[in-house]
Design brief:
Bound molecules: zinc ion
CATH architecture of the domain at 131-349: 3-Layer(aba) Sandwich
CATH superfamily of the domain at 131-349: Zn peptidases
Radius of gyration: 43 Å
Largest sheet: 7 strands, mixed
CATH class of the domain at 131-349: Alpha Beta
Number of helices: 6
Number of strands: 9
Shape: globular
Length: 350
Amino acid sequence: MRRPPVPIRSLAALLTAAALAGCGAGGDDTAVPGTPTDRPIATTTVADLAPTSTTTTAPPTTAPPTTTTLPPTTLPPTTLPPTTLPPTTLPPTTLPPTTLPPTTLPPTTLPATTLPQFTVAGDLDLGAQELVLGLSVEGRPIVAERHGTIGGRRVLIIGVIHGNEDDGVAIVQQLRNRAIDGTAPLDGVELWLVESMNPDGQAAQIRQNARAVDLNRNFPHKWGPIGDVGDSQYAGTGPASEPETQAMVNFIGQLRPDIAIWYHQDANLVIPSTGRDGRIRARYAELTGLPIADCCGGGGIYTGIAATWARNELKQDSDAVPFIVELPGSLTAEQVTAHADAVLTIAAEG
Ligand SMILES: [Zn+2]
């Protein structure tokens, strides 16, 4: 599984806007009132200083009033420069072209009650030997190839869903080679091979697709939001939001395989089940030496799983068996052959 537990993280981003504090500068009018200086001058009457008859009378002296008026002081207004936040521009979201191969019909939209959030690619010609199911985010084709007996038990093998868990490619390649050279017993078996449903992730050797979505959390059954871009199990923006998921949902919905296997690494096990499902899983485990055991300890969030979606999708009209095989961290040539043999055996036994 190669993924650590991931906490669900909020998408919210906080913007902090700076508030401008009002800044009023009040005028300060200072007025100094006039200070009248009315100083009455004492009037001195010299009457009896000398025994003369001369009398001197000084006229009264009146000082003019002194009034000082300061001009009003007005502070200039203080104006803060306007604060302009830069415009927030989201990067354009460009969806990959959904170009269908020329043999396919125009796109068909499923009723909203079934698959509410995406449009499937359209009818596929299941009589073709090779089909382009759709294109990845980066435009790589997702290809399915048909081998064996048309009309036989339909067995679908997906070599890669997590891009850095790609040892299943060697199993698919051996199945292809043996089907072509006639050394694979395919009487009564219509074998479909999808080498990779995550070619972008495989090219980059990352778990997710090119939009950082874990495709094995993106399928439209019991989908739930997990994490965000950068989290190992980021589930995308909605059920089947990714073109790779849409391509496989469309394909499997039409192919309706009896058995489907998704290869993963590197938990080295097959998860137990009951009924026909449990019997076929146990047989596969026995043939390859893988333990039957629950996966993968605590911490994982298992919504939007491809095999779980397929089991729900296909249970309506068959007893189909879609399941996961967790390969070890690497495969020897003998192990590759053992897995290819196991596929052919359970396909023949049903
Ligand atoms: Zn995996």
